Amino acid sequence: MKNEFHESVLVKKAIEALHIEKGSKYIDATLGNAGHTLEILNLGGMVLGIEIDPKMLEIAEGRLKTANKKDFKLVGGNFTEIDRIAKENGWYPVAGILFDLGVTNLHLKDLERGFSFGNSEAPLDMRMNPETQGVKGSDLLNVLREDQLRDLFEATMEPGAAKWISGRVMHSRMDKPIETVGDLLEISEGLKVGKPGLNEATLPFLAVRIAVNSELTNLEEVLPKAFDLIEKGGRLVVISFHSKEDVLVKNFFKEMTKVGAKQITFKPIMAEADEIGINRRARSAKMRVLEK
Ligand SMILES: C[S@@+](CC[C@H](N)C(=O)[O-])C[C@H]1O[C@@H](n2cnc3c(N)ncnc32)[C@H](O)[C@@H]1O
After folding, report:
1. Is the CB of 49 under 6 A from ligand 1?
2. Per-residue three-class SS string for 35-60
3. 31 C-alpha vs ligand 1 centroid, how far in Å?
4. Of 245, 159, 237, 177, which is closest to residue 209 (Cα–Cα)?
5. Annotated binding residue at 6?
6. How much is the average pLDDT of 136-146?
7. Which of 41, 82, 84, 214 is found 20 to 30 A from 225 (Cα to Cα)?
């Protein structure tokens, strides 16, 4: 089981925060491999799961079927359409909504999709849904102007570093178009950024992934829609993995306190050392909880 599915992060704490009640409706807006969804179902909650990536949706369907679960509906789509999806499925209002942002370990392990540096020959693709998204990571790096590239890289790094790497991209694509994971690895060589021990390519890859999948704008768009779907006393739980996301969540939650919502977490909840020991992805997870 450990390697077959995505290793879900902060499961116990997220489920506790959602206050699962038997027979109540929840939305898992980032279904992934249904790790969190399974726990909600095990406690008697009913789940509407939304997943953008058709491959992950299939894995989640298989996992829930094998576990003999009922009381759930799964929908393929972008969570920015959460309002339409919830209403079309009669899943409104709900007792809680969970966002566990980003990609799964399976995305990172898939050596053909360009999410990780494992295969330098792989196309620099990074689309979460290749069936509906037209623009790949390599396309962005080949067509954006230098100032647009700087904005793209500033999602994960300081302006100085973003300027440096944007210059490298411009230089590299004058020789030949940027096409592969290896091309971005080469461009990132010598980048001085991030915590000691962090691979120099980690932040450039993350920035390209965020841009390809509009991750920050999607999050900004969905938070108010999700809040609207929650019943009074219900909970919104968001697990994010980098600071720009966390700031969006933090500011949105603060704003919602002006309309009567209650922040359950003033500081984000993080994973304990034992979880980080088994799942490296947990080290950057930050969870915030809001009660409507
Ligand atoms: C960190 S994983 C979630 C893992 C899941 N909680 C579990 O336990 O298996 C995030 C998932 O959300 C999906 N995702 C990311 N952005 C999305 C979006 N805008 N709409 C719907 N799904 C999205 C990704 O494809 C990925 O499968």
Report:
1. no
2. HHHHHHHHCCCEEEEEECCHHHHHHH
3. 5
4. 245
5. no
6. 98
7. 41
- Residue 36 annotated as part of some ligand binding site: yes
Provide the token pair at 191.
């980048």
Does the CB atom of residue 117 touch ligand 1 within 6 A? Answer: no
- State whether residue 230 is helix, strand or coil: strand
Give CA–CA dist 128/147, Å, rounded.
25
Q: Is 35 annotated as a binding residue?
A: yes
Classify residue 240 by its DSSP letter.
E
Report the C-alpha gap between 136 and 142 in whole angstroms: 10
Residues 73-98 pLDDT 10s: 999 999 999 999 999 999 999 999 99
| 205 marked as binding residue | no
Residue 3 pLDDT class (50, 70, 90 cuts): low
To the question of whether residue 34 is assigned a binding role by annotation, the answer is: yes
Nearest ligand 1 atom to the CA of 222 is 19
Q: Kindly tell me the number of DSSP H helices and DSSP E strands found in the chain.
A: 13, 7
Q: Which domains does the chain have, with CATH numbers?
A: 11-106+215-291 (3.40.50.150), 134-212 (1.10.150.170)
Give yes or no for residue 279 CB within 6 A of ligand 1: no
Is the shortest distance between the CB of 46 and ligand 1 below 6 Å?
A: no
30 lines ligand 1 (CB under 6 A): yes
Question: What is the arithmetic mean of pLDDT over 64-73?
Answer: 96
| Contact between 193 and 206 (Cβ < 8 Å) | no
C-alpha 261 to ligand 1 mean position (Å): 26
pLDDT tens by residue, 231-285: 999 999 999 999 999 999 999 999 999 999 999 998 999 998 888 888 888 889 9
Task: Report the distance separating Cα 224 and Cα 209, nearest Å.
Answer: 24
Residue 1 has pLDDT above 50, yes or no: no
Atom 24 of ligand 1, residue of closest alpha carbon: 103
